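Researcher: I'd like a structural prediction for the single chain below. Treat it as a standalone chain; there are no partners to consider.
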Amino acid sequence: MKPFHLLNAHCRRLKSFLMKQDSFPAFLSTSCQALSKKKKVNGYEDINQEKYASLVQTVTTSKYRHQTPDKIFEEDSFLYGKVVKTKSSQKTSEPKVPKKLFPLSNPNKVILSVEKTDPSIPLKISLPSRSQMTNGNVPSVTRILQQTMPMEQAFYLERWKQRMIMELGEEGFIEYTAALFSQGKLFHVELEELLLSQEDFSIKQEELSGYLASVQHVLGDIVGVKSLESAVCHSELGYLGLVDCVAKYRDKLCVIDWKTSEKPKPQLRDTFDNPLQVAAYIGAINHDNNYNFQVDYGLIVVAYKDGSPAHPHFMDPDLCLHYWNKWLLRLEEYIEKKEGKQ
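Model: Treating it as a single chain, here is the predicted structure.
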């Protein structure tokens, strides 16, 4: 007989003997029982199994099912009850409108007859100096848009800047942005000479050949240039700007804004604040007596360095009015910020 079996037999005989002797301490009987296998008590037996049967089934089987959002919401609803949604004060947020709806066009503008003007010579008005401004320092369209840039747009711009600094370093980034600015300025000069040239045009800056090739198919639709690199001022709203070009594009008189880009911008929304800039120029021209015409259309032309066909983004009167109202909101925001600092 094995030692373990002998030990169990001995315990059984000892237990039988102790049960007959009432005078023995009771703890001896429990010590022998410790050697025998003790049955465990299940604490869940007292729980109402029927009440929570479906819950147990849900918990134990959920890991085998595909957890889609709908299934998760169903289980949450079963466990915690239905979600009670609070009623919002406004069902739909109304679009923000300017406090003062200033007209884009100017019905009171006096248009001089063609005989008193020379249509063959495009207007080119220089930006006024501070001493020439009656209202002091008049902000530019570019400055207003920069200082009222939406947070999301500012975030992506700052992220791009930090990424470029990581790649190029601080000095390299400064050189890169300066080169972009210089390149854009030279591109505008070349375009101006190209639009004014009556003879064969020769490219002076070889690094601009890609940009000029990019806009060739757009230039074929542009005639009747009325102004080039000309300053415009909205005296009533108090801002100024420098308009790239005013000419007819497919028989529609447009404010034309030339842009260069390293990335394709096939959609108007890809140009960010450029439509607001064009709308601001249109409104200023229509209320500036230096210009013997009014404009109802806009055109943003995005040229590419590799010579890829430029993307022309045409803005009809409805679209111009839409962005004009957005511009008025940004102008109001700029004025409020400026007054808050005073």
